[in-house]
Recover the amino acids of this structure.
């Protein structure tokens, strides 16, 4: 061991270990998220009768799944930065911001899916026997744990994305203030 | 800054500055400034007083504690943004509360589109836990933004608030997984199914990630503090 090299602090060692484990777990999730893509490309067979509603689901599933894969990839990158000891660095905070932006993009895609699903409704299920009646009352408003749904549009993901982006921005500003203060004599 | 305020006025100190030769090529205002500096600032042996007792004791002292104008602008932006987010959270929470109250009022008169009022004890308990968690999460987020508004961005208090949000997300995942315990329509309560639902919940994942990221940031802050204290 070179005596001149600085010993790594035990805290940093712990961070590196945990980050590595989490990064491998995320990469595992990424592989699982890629599987539906493979399924679409290799095993999907077109239905005998072609219509927009039949194509809509697989076509809109591709960008949503791509955003999910990108999200996992960015999360793995974030933990890679932590592993390298870059905790409050500009790259790390930019990575968190990107994760928030991807949440917003995912919300936009899901909303588009929702709207298109209303314009082109899915094919009706097989008819029920005449003596069976189904009554379902759907509420226009649904609230929950940071889930705000108005007329079928869930705003929870949008809200989460915006909050992540804004908190990352606040952290970035804090980092810049710290840097400026360090440079000030 | 304090010295330049007296540039245009007559110097109250008639003493000649010691470096008069070097100051000869500068205009008289600079000479005055130099003399002020010598008399009021450099002559004091306790320089700590200059930065800590600005308004009370020393009139023309430099303010070393003051942030630069750039940092001040950044802090102001952070304050505005935190205030905006706090307002947004309050508005969301109050509006949803009002909507629920309105829906319940309408259901009492039989004109509601909302589902009927809960009846069983289990459903009541589930709803109370559900709203309590939501309220607690909103309060935690509000407190976090309060810290940001005060300019505390990388502090231990912030980390504890974010960690609490992570634990609340996990608690929510647990509550959702155990819904069959409270709601009879959700099927029979079985431990393995509940456990799988809990572990596969996105809220569980999100909570775990929030806790891990907060822990890493807290450790990073401690390392920074240790390094700052090391000479």
């Amino acid at each position: 061991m070179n005596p001149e090299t600085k010993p790594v602090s035990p805290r940093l060692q712990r961070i590196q270990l945990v980050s590595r484990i989490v990064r491998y777990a995320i990469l595992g999730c990424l592989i699982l998220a890629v599987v539906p893509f493979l399924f679409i490309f290799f095993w999907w067979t077109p239905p005998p009768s072609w219509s927009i509603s039949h194509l809509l689901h697989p076509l809109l599933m591709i960008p949503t799944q791509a955003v999910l894969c990108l999200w996992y990839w960015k999360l793995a990158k974030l933990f890679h930065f932590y592993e390298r000891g870059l905790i409050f660095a500009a790259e790390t905070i930019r990575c968190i911001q990107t994760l928030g932006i991807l949440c917003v993009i995912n919300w936009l895609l899901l909303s588009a899916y929702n709207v298109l699903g209303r314009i082109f409704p899915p094919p009706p299920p097989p008819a029920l026997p005449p003596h069976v009646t189904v009554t379902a009352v759907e509420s226009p408003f649904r609230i929950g744990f940071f889930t705000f749904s108005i007329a079928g549009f869930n705003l929870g993901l949008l809200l989460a994305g915006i909050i992540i982006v804004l908190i990352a921005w606040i952290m970035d500003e804090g980092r810049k203030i710290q840097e400026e203060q360090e440079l000030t004599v | 800054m304090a010295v330049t305020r007296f540039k245009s006025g007559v110097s109250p100190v008639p003493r000649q500055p010691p470096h008069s030769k070097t100051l000869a090529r500068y205009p008289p205002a600079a000479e005055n400034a130099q003399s002020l500096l010598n008399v009021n600032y450099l002559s004091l042996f306790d320089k700590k007083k200059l930065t800590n007792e600005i308004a009370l004791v020393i009139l023309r002292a430099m303010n070393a504690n003051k942030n630069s104008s750039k940092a001040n602008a950044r802090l102001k932006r952070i304050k505005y943004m935190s205030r905006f987010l706090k307002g947004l959270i309050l508005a969301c929470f109050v509006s949803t509360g009002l909507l629920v109250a309105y829906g319940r009022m309408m259901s009492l008169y039989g004109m509601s589109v909302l589902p009927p009022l809960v009846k069983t004890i289990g459903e009541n308990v589930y709803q109370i836990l559900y709203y309590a968690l939501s309220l607690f999460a909103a309060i935690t987020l509000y407190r976090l933004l309060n810290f940001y508004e005060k300019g505390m961005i990388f502090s231990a208090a912030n980390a504890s608030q974010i960690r609490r949000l992570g634990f609340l997300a996990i608690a929510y995942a647990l509550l959702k997984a155990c819904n069959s315990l409270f709601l009879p329509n959700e099927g029979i309560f079985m431990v393995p199914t509940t456990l799988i639902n809990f572990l596969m919940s996105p809220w569980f994942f999100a909570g775990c990630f929030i806790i891990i990221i907060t822990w890493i940031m807290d450790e990073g802050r401690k390392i920074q503090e240790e390094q700052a204290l090391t000479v």
Remarks:
- The two ends of chain B are 31 Å apart (CA to CA).
